[in-house]
Description:
Elements: E1 7-8, E2 11-12, H1 14-20, H2 22-35, E3 40-43, H3 49-55, E4 63-66, E5 83-84, E6 95-98, H4 103-110, E7 118-121, E8 146-153, E9 157-164, E10 175-182, E11 188-196, E12 202-206, H5 207-214, E13 219-228, E14 239-244, E15 251-254, E16 264-269, E17 276-282, E18 295-298, E19 305-306, E20 316-320, H6 321-324, E21 333-337, E22 346-351, E23 354-359, E24 361-363, E25 384-390, E26 396-403, E27 411-420, E28 425-435, E29 442-443, E30 452-458, E31 471-478, E32 484-490, E33 492-493, E34 516-521, E35 524-526, E36 529-538, E37 552-557, E38 563-569, E39 576-579, H7 581-584, H8 587-593, E40 598-603, E41 609-615, E42 624-625
Parallel strand pairs: 3-4, 3-6, 4-5, 6-7
Antiparallel strand pairs: 1-2, 8-13, 9-12, 9-14, 10-11, 10-13, 14-15, 16-21, 16-24, 17-20, 17-22, 18-19, 18-21, 22-23, 25-30, 25-33, 26-29, 26-31, 27-28, 27-30, 31-32, 34-40, 35-36, 36-39, 36-41, 37-38, 37-40, 41-42
Amino acid sequence: MLDIKTFGPQGGNVLYKALSHPLAVDAMQALEQTLKGRIVAVYDPDDYLPTVRGLYPTIQPAIILTHDSEQVGQPDELGGQKRAVVHLTEIEADAVLALSFDDARMRARLEGVLGGKSLYTLGAAKLPDDFLPYRRPYLDKCNFATNFAFFRETEHFSTRLVTANYWSNYGATELRYWLRLFDGSGRILAEWCQDVEDPDGGVVIDSREVKEEFGLSDFTGQLFIHVIGARGHDVVKYALDSFGRNGDPSLSVTHDANAWPSMRFATLPAPDTGETVLLWVQNSHGTAIPEGAITLNPMGEEDHRAVERVVGPYETVAVDVGALFPNLKWPAQLELRAGQHLVRPRYEVVQRGRTRIAHMNVERANLLPDPAIRAMSPLLGRGFVLPFPVLDPAVYTSFVQPNPMSESLTTMPMRLDLFDELGRGCGSHFLGNLPRNHREAVALHELMDRPGHAELVYDFRDGGEGDGWPHALMRYRYIQTEHAAETSFGGHIFNTMMTWRNEPQSYAGPPPGLTTRLFLKLGQQLDGEVLRSFCYLIYPTSLREGRKPSHTCLHLHGADGRELAQKTIMIQPSGSYLVKPHGLFNAELLRQAGEGGYVLIRDLTCRLFGYHGLETGTGRFSLDHMFGF
């Protein structure tokens, strides 16, 4: 396990990102070698040491120095006591490590007490100046807008990352993507910059183009993304399409990787009959993952089986889940103990000559069962709601499987509420007080005779606990071709003017979040086949009373960010709408928008939720939840 803090109530730990950035790794590892075997006194004015030691464990301080007079003589958590920095000249040490990126300031502060000892700082691990639009402070979160993406280009598969310059809405004027591609062994294959000049412009990074530009062989690895010049927030969001090539009919899409490693991940399905499930373990750090440090277990059961190999720096390894658990079958689900070595992993399901890729989700350590959820005010209606599509039952099968998504949750008291596209109720189904290790999936196509959506809500009639993060995996299959897709997400309180803690959440600003800004990419041509985008927009309502139909505006943007057209649609409360840009905008407008174009879905009257994908009209489709900004 890496003993590091990556994410907390205040957001991501910027220090972690600064120390784990690929450009910082070489300098930090050189520092490890320089200090190896020496008696090192560490001056840690900002409490950086736990993160430094977590990522670079061979840095072993012998003495901890402090400038806080009240800390002198207190335990240093290394078996000794903290020493006053002013006594440094008297301390037996042959090197001093000041844990600060401000080299000049540390040298000025300590030069009078070094007594001839060598001084080292974190200054050598700073990013180059052209990465730093915000010089002060260095650890400004927008200096570290970074993320990873699964990236593959082989004879049978290509990948394509699609997003937009949403930072221009926060005032960013100069934006540049710095990209480093690692192959499956963790070796650097390519490094380049992609300027984004147009406000609101589309951003596309295609594995086919990367392979051709750099003259690469086939690869399956990961792409490190650093957005230089980001403003407003540091979250790098994207959709990642995976395409089958040369006769392979596979097609899938996944959300961004979530840039902070976690201790545990969930929503990994066990293989169904005839399936192979591969978990893609992608090391997010420049240090190796020890053999056995990553394990899988059936959800809610202490049967831990390890990845019995070292995973090198930035290496990508495919783990056959069925080989680890040969007797475990869907709808069983698994938990990944990742030890903070990985950002949100992908998994790939191979069945009947097709693959589909989906992502696991962070299992939260900071959530506990909360009795207040059972006594929630009636002003919040049904409270937490997890909405998801029920595709046309005549054409698709639709399944849902509730998942525990916090470490301490042992029960899940759940109910399904069903609605057609016009928001009319189609019944409710109590699922029971499900145990953490339940192995159930509900066939929604057997509960509805028309398309619409379902909502997973808490129902405490048989007891149980809620933690405020109801979660589920949704699986869809086209009956005629058996092409499948799956996604997973968690619930929120939707569309109530009254608030409960940080709900209803907003993409920007404090609650209540009652507006919508969602990104829907357009389709493309692939090997002569037309792939068209779509999204299922859902108007979820925790409290339906008083809600009016939505006033949802679809803004068609070209690849250069220009707005080309608008369309307005209306969705009933608790209703849904299947948006198909090629059916709403004429062909000439879509041609002008180009393959980097997109639709921005805006609504100032309510918060909508959506699931997007691509389709061919022949049963080949992808599906995942949308993102907003």
